[in-house]
Amino acid sequence: MSLRNLSDEMLIADTKMWNEKEEHCTRQFLRHINEVNRRRLFCDDQTGSLFKYIRKNFNKSDSETSRRVLAAKTLRHVPNADKALAKKQVTLTNLAEVSGLVGNIKSSKRKNEILESIKGKTQIQTREMVDKITGKKRATRSKSHSHSDGSCRIHLTLVGEAAKDYLFVKEQLSNKGLYRPEEIVGHAIKTTAESIRKRIMGIGSRKSKVTSNSRYIPATIKKVVIARSGNKCENCGSKYNLQFDHITPYGTGGESAIGNVRQLCSNCNTRAAIVAFSQQKMDLFINQS
Ligand SMILES: [Zn+2]
Questions:
Q1: What Rg do the C-alpha atoms of the chain give, in angstroms?
Q2: Distance from residue 110's CA to the centre of ligand 1 (Å)
Q3: Centroid of ligand 1 to alpha carbon of 217 (angstroms)
Q4: Do the domain assignments include residue 194?
Q5: pLDDT in tens, 64-83
């Protein structure tokens, strides 16, 4: 039946009904993606993150996906949030805005207080409240472009402590006429990169000194594995939160040998452990944030 033939009353009533259905479906969708996240099922799809999984498999834009992933995170941390969403006291956007905040709070009471404080608030009001609590100022979005000659152009705005530190370093060094801004930033990036490489290789930690028949993986083996993987997750290709994993688990006799060690991102590593040891066992160890 064409909508043109509906009476005004019927059209309004139907529109309300479809909106109710849409809201119900969205809540169910959030519940389901939280369970997909708990099982790390997106790793079986080599997507590496819940965001990329939804982006790839469902017809949603970046912002729609982001809002749902972040709102779902708030639902995991604040059980009453689902009820508030059902009662239309909060919006998906409200919930998404506070996801980072509630993820870092342990007290259930405090989490519920935050939920109460965002009821009926707009996105801007919610964002202002989060900024007030965290004491953070939002930087304008940074942009970076890689060029074919290997250079990288970065446009960034520093705020708060980072801006103060930058100005302090600049003042100290420019007095001596030593460095230009790009050299100061380059030095900071180099120091950070060195520290990350050391952490990946286990250099400087006790772990690197133990022998290959222990759970810990020697730096020499890590080096070979990194060369093989290209320093990426060997399942999904992610470059973030990389970990070394025993293919045959250490607990079931797997050795720290080159052929038994691979690089996985933390999500794929968790998924591998769920498959090897069961969800029930891994729920005790998994960080569900
Ligand atoms: Zn991965």
A1: 24
A2: 33
A3: 19
A4: yes
A5: 999 999 999 999 999 899 99
